[in-house]
Amino acid sequence: MSDHVDLIIIGAGPAGMSAAIAASRQGLSIVVLDEQARPGGQIWRNVEQRRDGALSTVLGRDYAAGAELVDRFRACPADYRAEASVWHIDEGQGTGGGKVFYLKDHQARVLEGRCILLATGAQERPPAFPGWTLPGVMGIGAAQVTLKSGGQIPDGPVWIAGCGPLAYLYAMQLRRAGGTIAGFLDTTPPGRLLPNFFAFLQAMLFQPAPMLKGVAWQLALRCTVPWVPHVAALTADGGDRLKTLTYTTTGGKPVTVEAAHLLVHEGIVPGTHPTLMLGCEQAWSDAQDCFAPKLDEWGETSLPGIFVAGDAGGIAGAQAARLRGELAAVAIMRRLKPSAVAERDAVKRLRSRLSRIIAGRAFLDRYFRPREAACLPPDDTVICRCEGVTAAQIRALTTNGLGDPNMVKAFTRAGMGPCQGRQCGYGVARLTAEITGTHAATVGLYRARPPLKPITLGELAVLDKQRTEA
Amino acid sequence: MFRKIAQPAQGVTVEVDGTPVRASLGETVADLLLRQTEVGFGVNAASGRVRAPYCMMGVCFECLVEIDGRDSQACLMPVREGMRITRRMGRPEVAA
Ligand code: FES
After folding, report:
1. Pick from A162, A181, A182, A164: nearest CA to A172
2. Is B89 in CB contact (< 8 Å) with chain A?
3. Does A257 lie in the same domain as A193?
4. Does residue A188 form part of some domain?
């Protein structure tokens, strides 16, 4: 049996929740599918359960503020289905919307929607380096997730390596939580401030509060934890788990230190698997050094009735995601219910707030743009974690005349494991570009194919049964 | 290994590799396993290396464990009373 609704929203983070609240006000029938057990996305993971207490103080006010949106989302009439993992989307052959196949309670299910909104968020940019597969090495975003969801921090001194707002924010939270920072290896390359000074002023003008907060965090950290600037290369070592790490600063000699925990971060990139699989046109963003789906001013993709809101459409943060979710809801409502008119002024207000955030973003993109070495690791680096394929194996192939990630995949198995290339997509694109003398933008990412998530035959078989019974 | 910053009020009991373990309500299986002394969540089928969570948000699949008999991403699965969690630390054998 396949249900029909006006709008299917995938993802219950800031964008998905805001869109659901706005669109349900207009009486649309909505289903929201989310992979997690509770609404909030990664940014407000578990916020409902963390209203007060020690953890809420550690995580700070911006986190706690998410509870208000989650409450409004819970109260809105949209049908919210948690722990629902989408494994296929079938677009409606140009007629708008399509079918969404998902897995819930180990059963495949299908839903049909007149419009689909992908609010699937972002992921950390995988900064492949030798030893990054060792237990003990983790993304900073990942460490923050387990702080929000498990209320826990690494036991013992933590090395932090990377750059960007999330790295500084987590370091502050870790200290507030009573954790120890062994050292902060700042990977921001030297000489980034001067050429971007105009963007800095612009960001200060349009986004004064978050900018000042960021500057204050940096100063506080630089004064209180061992701070190593301009780290250019990183290696992790150990047998079955991390024991030492070696870092090299620009123009410096390698330094090896003992380490039990290493948290790394080189910014975040949109999760592109759903839009790639659908065949939505993608565009390379030079500013953010990644691909993002091409979107119109409302967030509609190149396929009619398929929208993207939030960081899945380009990184701009949670506040922008809320606004983009509301804008998409306006466009969807106009399409499905032309009788209900949205206020012009309201749309104008949304747009002006959004453009202020985007104006402030330019500085962050440029200042924290990942260094080249983070994208082109040495030969002994595992690029595809799932299949254990190294940079050397991929380089060897591309010199033999292979210039396409899908060919690299066929020959090396890189991208064929359970994560389906979500961790190695950019690495393979970069390496391919390096060897063929082109740019990752021209090389592109792997093709994404269904199922987006592994599904067993037993789970799939339920779908057929539902159909015959319908 | 990770440690809790405060002792949780409510808990559930689950089984990790046959041993009963207390977990706190609202956390995921990956959160819980990160506090166990043994570091690994399993072994990578291709390379044989010990693996542990990298992303904690459903992207990398490094957290796969068996939960109540099914392969599951531990970072997406909330703990529930009586859950049986098994880590497979050996590489899968293929019968000749
Ligand atoms: S830790 Fe990456 S999928 Fe669970």
Report:
1. A181
2. no
3. yes
4. yes
Does A88 share its domain with A176?
no
Question: Of B6, B24, B52, which has the smallest distance from its Cβ to A53's Cβ?
Answer: B6
Contact B51 A135 (CB under 8 A): yes
Measured in degrees and rounded to the nearest 5, phi and psi for residue A263 equal -115, 130
Going by DSSP bridges, is the β-strand pair A107-118/A3-10 parallel, antiparallel, or unpaired?
A: parallel
Q: Are residues A20 and A71 in the same domain?
A: yes
Co-location of A31 and A97 in the same domain: yes
Number of compact structural domains in chain A: 3
**Quick check: is A86 in a domain?**
yes
Measured between beta carbons, the chain A residues lying within 8 angstroms of B53 are 138, 142
Are residue A45 and residue A90 in the same domain, yes or no? yes
- B56 CA to centre of ligand 1 in angstroms: 4
**Chain centroid to CA A463:** 30
Q: Which helix (H) or strand (E) holds A222?
A: helix A208-224
- The whole domain housing A184 covers 139-264
Of A386, A396, A391, whose CA–CA distance to A375 is shortest? A391
Residue A369 lies in a domain: no
Give the number of the atom of ligand 1 that is nearest the alpha carbon of residue B59: 3
Judgement on whether residues A148 and A238 belong to the same structural domain of the protein:
yes
Q: Is B53 in the pocket of ligand 1 (CB under 6 A)?
A: yes
From A249, A264, A279, give the residue that closes a domain: A264
Q: How far is CA B2 from CA A242, A260, B24, in A?
A: 14, 11, 14
Most ligand 1 atoms within 8 A of CB, residue of B32, B41, B59 to mutate: B59
Last residue of a domain, one of A209, A230, A264: A264
Q: In this complex, which of B34, B55, B70 lies closest to A124 when CB atoms are compared?
A: B55
* A350 CB-side CA count, 13 A: 23
In a domain, A76, yes or no: yes
Read off the pTM. 0.95
pLDDT tens, position by position, for chain A (470 residues)?
458 999 999 999 999 999 999 999 988 999 999 999 999 999 999 999 877 778 888 999 899 999 999 999 999 999 999 999 999 999 877 778 899 999 999 899 999 999 999 999 999 999 999 999 999 999 999 999 999 999 999 999 999 999 999 999 999 999 999 999 999 999 999 999 999 999 999 999 999 999 999 999 999 999 999 999 999 999 999 989 999 999 999 999 999 999 999 999 999 999 999 999 999 999 999 999 999 999 999 999 999 999 999 999 999 999 999 999 999 999 999 999 887 766 788 999 999 999 999 999 999 999 999 987 777 889 999 999 999 999 999 988 866 657 788 888 988 999 999 999 999 999 999 998 888 888 899 999 999 988 998 888 888 888 877 666 55
The distance of B95 to chain A (nearest Cα, Å) reads 21
Do A247 and A305 belong to one domain?
A: no
Instruction: Residue A247: give its domain's CATH number.
Output: 3.50.50.60
Phi, psi of A9 (to 5 degrees): -110, 130
